[in-house]
Specification:
Structural class: mainly alpha
CATH architecture: Orthogonal Bundle
Number of domains: 1
Number of helices: 10
Shape: elongated
Helix content: over 70%
Strand content: under 5%
Low-confidence stretches: none
CATH superfamily: Tetracycline Repressor, domain 2
Radius of gyration: 19 Å
CATH topology: Tetracycline Repressor, domain 2
Length: about 200
């Protein structure tokens, strides 16, 4: 039952926002009593923490699956972006933006974990791209990782509209890739832009 509550709450939080969804809403959607929810979660904050943990786990499992498909480095980034777009397409407001605004402590915990995970993902992608001669050999990998996650997290933290955030993220991905790409990488980038109708 606990897992079912977390799963339903996560759906509702991502669709309608962390702030606007109440324990009553979750109970109503599941046709259970609010008392049942409180048996597992002493308050809404604890439930939000569990939900963000589930989203984090799901996102990184999907990223691992995409990486395992052995796309080239540039295509891999576009596939990951596509996954995010699919995952959050039903929400109007950016989940990260809401979390930061209404639950800053939970937000801080989520961010410190995400930054570590994403740093690793971005770093592996850049190293892969250098090996494949899609990115320049002379890159300072750590600096480019920092540039990219600063861009991405700033967009999500400061953009209330989910649609606008996704649009800016794609622009950031193109910007990031162009900054690193070799001539061969630019050709691949243009191919991905056409394929993804940007």
């Amino acid at each position: 039952m606990k897992d079912k509550i977390i799963s339903k709450a996560t759906d509702l939080f991502l669709k309608l926002g962390f702030k606007s969804v109440t324990m009553d809403d979750i109970a109503g959607e599941m046709c259970i009593s609010k008392k049942t929810i409180y048996k597992y979660f002493c308050n809404k904050e604890v439930l939000i923490e569990e939900s963000t943990e589930l989203v984090h786990k799901t996102v990184h499992e999907i990223i691992d699956t995409i990486v395992a498909k052995n796309h080239n480095a540039i295509e891999e980034n576009f596939e990951i972006r596509k996954m995010f777009k699919e995952m959050f397409k039903s929400s109007d407001t950016s989940p990260l933006y809401q979390l930061k605004k209404h639950y800053p402590e939970i937000y801080q915990n989520v961010m410190s974990r995400e930054i570590n995970e994403c740093t690793m993902c971005f770093k592996q992608n850049i190293e892969k791209g250098i090996t494949q001669e899609l990115y320049r050999k002379d890159l300072d990998v750590d600096v480019y990782v920092k540039f990219y996650y600063t861009l991405i997290f700033n967009i999500n933290e400061n953009t209330a509209s989910e649609t606008e955030a996704r649009k800016l993220e794609l622009e950031a991905l193109e910007y990031h890739t162009r900054a690193m790409a070799t001539p061969k990488g630019i050709v691949e980038l243009e191919k991905q832009i056409l394929k993804n109708n940007i």
